[in-house]
């Protein structure tokens, strides 16, 4: 929210408007690129960016986060459109937005911070790998195979196509040049880096294509109003499909997690007011509800744009609101400017963004210090590539719960022999079904011809499975002529 006092300060207004122009120049190619990669008209990416600025920008939560279409949702959207059709995208996004609003009002925002960081990194890494693998084909103006495994298997054929086909080689050269500019730009002097790298990369690729007389594939732009297609009643009926519901849950989960983790990162970058996570979740939900009503792409807060906003000097929400206004003016007044950008250049931007999602630098230290967390990260990422985003994340969350349960269910068994031949077995710690094989293995090694007392008073936790197993063991362990095992609770 913007206070009247802040709007009356010309220094704040001037600084935030300048920051909004920088954010706009970063957001423009990303909005178009994500839309094209998702299989929807380029204008729908701009619509989502506009809503992220002019709707979410006014809502409380985080003052400096910038929302819009994100590479992290590209895979989900592409799969949803392929399976259910473009007309179903609106209801899916709208339902996901309403779910986010409900979760925010129910104060679930803070609980997203409890999701294992390794699962989130694995999720982003898997998404990044899929984006990179898929957009490499787009860089060569070649159709991408369907699944992640098919995409991997098709890479040798893609390499042959690039080498032997002049048009594919030309397009790939533009895309590779775009990636090179994005990689080299941070190494240049600070005065040069005032111009956003994505804008420079796109302008250079477009200029090279034009001056060299190349004819690469470009985005098909027809105007903002023509692209907006609000869903009808028949489209909403698809929400009864179990597969569609799964996609709604996946989009809500990924968009919420990405937004709230981005909020945490933005809070660490600035000294202003902290993010209110529940309100931010509601704001993201409202934005996705509006996007769904317009038939546009889903949104999330994006760390690249948000970090750019902070680094450009923004201190209020005016910057993110104004960036949405600039996107609206461009889409309304100069739509043809978007239609001259080579798709290979946009694919190059997404390849670079996908590579940044893969936590390659963090994996080595994580493996050395917390090997279990590194395995969790890798399994989640690989599962997403091999199956799909929803199933991969579910597997990661399940493994995180199992890992946590295993690490917390430490149980210690001690044996004391008393005078008279009685054996006292004491269990301490947390006895869960995960430790049952080890517990029973040790108990079954005890003698069967001596009185035994099982002392459970030192246990902090004893689950039902363990209790039943221990009672069964006590009944059948001792020989018939020896008194049964006694249990002290």
Strand content: 5-15%
Strand segment count: 6
The percentage helix is 55-70%
Major sheet description: 4 strands, mixed
Protein name: SulP family inorganic anion transporter
Organism: Streptomyces anulatus
Keywords: Membrane, Transmembrane, Transmembrane helix
Membrane topology: Multi-pass membrane protein
Summarize the entry for a quick read.
With 489 residues, the protein is α/β, with parallel strands linked by helices. The protein has 22 helices and six strands. It is a multi-pass membrane protein.
What does this molecule look like?
With 489 residues, this protein is of the alpha/beta class. The protein contains 22 helices and six strands. The protein has helices at 4-7, 10-38, 42-54, 74-84, 89-105, 117-139, 148-153, 155-164, 166-184, 197-211, 224-227, 233-236, 242-269, 277-294, 303-311, 318-333, 343-357, 360-369, 371-386, 389-408, 436-443, 464-476; strands spanning 67-68, 300-301, 411-417, 423-431, 452-462, 486-488. The strands form two sheets. The protein has a four-stranded mixed sheet with strand order 3-4-5-6, with helices on one face. Strand 4, helix 21 (436-443) and strand 5 form a beta-alpha-beta unit. Helix 6 (117-139) runs parallel beside helix 19 (371-386). The longest helix has 29 residues, at 10-38. The model has no long low-confidence stretch (mean pLDDT 84). Keywords: Membrane, Transmembrane, Transmembrane helix.
SSE layout:
Blueprint: H1 4-7, H2 10-38, H3 42-54, E1 67-68, H4 74-84, H5 89-105, H6 117-139, H7 148-153, H8 155-164, H9 166-184, H10 197-211, H11 224-227, H12 233-236, H13 242-269, H14 277-294, E2 300-301, H15 303-311, H16 318-333, H17 343-357, H18 360-369, H19 371-386, H20 389-408, E3 411-417, E4 423-431, H21 436-443, E5 452-462, H22 464-476, E6 486-488
Parallel strand pairs: 4-5, 5-6
Antiparallel strand pairs: 1-2, 3-4
Helix pairs in contact: 2-3, 2-4, 2-10, 2-15, 2-16, 2-17, 3-14, 3-16, 4-13, 5-13, 5-14, 6-17, 6-19, 6-20, 8-9, 9-10, 9-17, 13-14, 13-15, 18-19, 19-20
Subcellular location: Membrane
Membrane topology: Multi-pass membrane protein
Keywords: Membrane, Transmembrane, Transmembrane helix
């Amino acid at each position: 929210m913007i206070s009247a006092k802040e709007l009356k300060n010309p220094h704040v207004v001037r600084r935030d408007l300048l920051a909004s122009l920088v954010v706009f120049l970063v957001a423009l190619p990303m909005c178009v690129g994500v839309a094209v990669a998702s299989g929807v008209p380029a204008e729908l990416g701009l619509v989502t960016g506009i809503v992220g600025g002019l709707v979410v920008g006014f809502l409380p939560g985080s003052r400096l986060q910038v929302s819009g279409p994100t590479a992290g949702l590209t895979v989900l959207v592409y799969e949803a459109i392929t399976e259910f059709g473009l007309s179903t995208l609106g209801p899916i996004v709208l339902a996901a937005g309403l779910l986010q609003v409900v979760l925010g009002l129910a104060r679930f925002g803070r609980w997203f911070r409890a999701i294992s960081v390794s699962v989130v990194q694995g999720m982003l890494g898997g998404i990044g790998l899929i984006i990179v693998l898929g957009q490499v084909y787009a860089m060569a103006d070649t159709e991408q195979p369907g699944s992640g495994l098919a995409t991997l298997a098709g890479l040798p054929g893609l390499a042959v196509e690039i080498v032997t086909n002049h048009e594919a080689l030309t397009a790939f050269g533009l895309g590779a040049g775009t990636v090179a500019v994005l990689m080299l730009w941070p190494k240049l002097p600070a005065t040069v880096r005032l111009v956003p790298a994505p804008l420079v990369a796109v302008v250079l690729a477009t200029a090279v294509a034009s001056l060299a007389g190349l004819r690469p594939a470009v985005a098909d732009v027809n105007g903002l109003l023509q692209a907006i297609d609000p869903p009808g009643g028949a489209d909403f009926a698809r929400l009864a499909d179990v597969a569609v519901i799964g996609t709604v849950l996946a989009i809500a989960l990924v968009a919420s997690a990405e937004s709230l983790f981005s909020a945490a990162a933005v809070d660490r970058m600035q000294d202003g007011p902290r993010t209110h996570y529940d309100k931010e979740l509601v704001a993201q939900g409202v934005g996705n509800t509006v996007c769904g009503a317009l038939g546009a792409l889903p949104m999330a807060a994006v760390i690249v744009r948000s970090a750019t906003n902070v680094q450009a000097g923004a201190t209020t929400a005016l910057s993110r609101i104004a960036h949405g206004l600039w996107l609206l003016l461009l889409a309304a007044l100069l739509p043809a400017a978007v239609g001259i950008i080579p798709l290979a250049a946009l694919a190059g931007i997404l390849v670079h963004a996908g590579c940044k999602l893969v936590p390659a630098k963090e994996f080595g230290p994580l493996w050395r210090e917390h090997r279990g967390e590194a395995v969790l990260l890798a399994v989640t990422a690989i599962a997403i590539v091999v199956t799909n985003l929803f199933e991969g994340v579910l597997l990661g969350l399940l493994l995180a719960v199992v890992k946590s349960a295993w690490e917390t269910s430490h149980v210690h068994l001690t044996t004391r022999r008393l005078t008279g031949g009685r054996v006292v077995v004491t269990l301490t710690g947390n006895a869960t079904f995960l430790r049952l094989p080890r517990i029973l293995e040790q108990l079954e090694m005890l003698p069967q011809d001596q009185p035994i007392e099982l002392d459970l008073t030192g246990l902090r936790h004893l689950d039902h499975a363990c209790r039943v197993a221990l009672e069964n063991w006590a009944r059948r362990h001792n020989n018939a002529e020896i008194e049964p095992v006694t249990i002290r609770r």
